[in-house]
Amino acid sequence: MSGFTAPLSAAAIEEIVAAVAFGHDGLVPVVTQQHDSGEILMLAWMNRTALRATLAEGIAVYWSRSRMALWRKGETSGQTQRLIDLLIDCDADSLVLKVDQTGVACHTGRRSCFFRAARAHGIATVAPVLVDPDTLYARTKD
Amino acid sequence: MSGFTAPLSAAAIEEIVAAVAFGHDGLVPVVTQQHDSGEILMLAWMNRTALRATLAEGIAVYWSRSRMALWRKGETSGQTQRLIDLLIDCDADSLVLKVDQTGVACHTGRRSCFFRAARAHGIATVAPVLVDPDTLYARTKD
Q1: ipTM of the prediction greater than 0.90, yes or no
Q2: Residue A64 C-alpha, separation from nearest chain B C-alpha, in angstroms
């Protein structure tokens, strides 16, 4: 697959944005995956503005539901996600973003947000903290 | 990671269900990934009943938002998903299901539901139909 070897035209971006079935809240769930290892890094949300910005700028831009604001991933922490590919599912109501993650995706300092797993005895933490969260953020949470 | 080598106890299942932050609609988004290849197969939704059934039975059971009913994946098509692992993210509001997919995940007969990709000229289909959908379903859509 070729992915994003060149910037998309404005027409291509609008075709893609128009094809996505955003929910009643104007959002679509986005699964972010490290492009080469296949590791799932996080699940986040985009509105039309975030999707346009992601495609135009070639870095992941989400909509933060907690902050109710556009969320340029890594703007505070430096842990940016360079866009490699964007996939749309059969119902066009969810997206996969293949990225090249700088550093760690999770605000806890772990590579992936999915660091807890169901085990026979209950829930276990299965991934280590790679970066001290205090070194990632001054005062704001990414 | 050990995954589900043995059935979970009822207490472990209830600990996991209690830890998940279901939305106001009682649902949580679930990313389903082929455990060995890392391919993302689909994004679906679970309510508490679906999550309990998945953990107790060791096969993926979702909540179908379109049919408003419990959805035992593959019940009609035979394309079941055997549970290998279940991961919870930092906010506990999304899950990753690692599975062993029998056949194809998508009702279009493709391995993954994410078969369209953003390309320079717009949207392209990037994965082939592996199974004729007419052979998957008599009258119902899985």
Answers
A1: yes
A2: 13
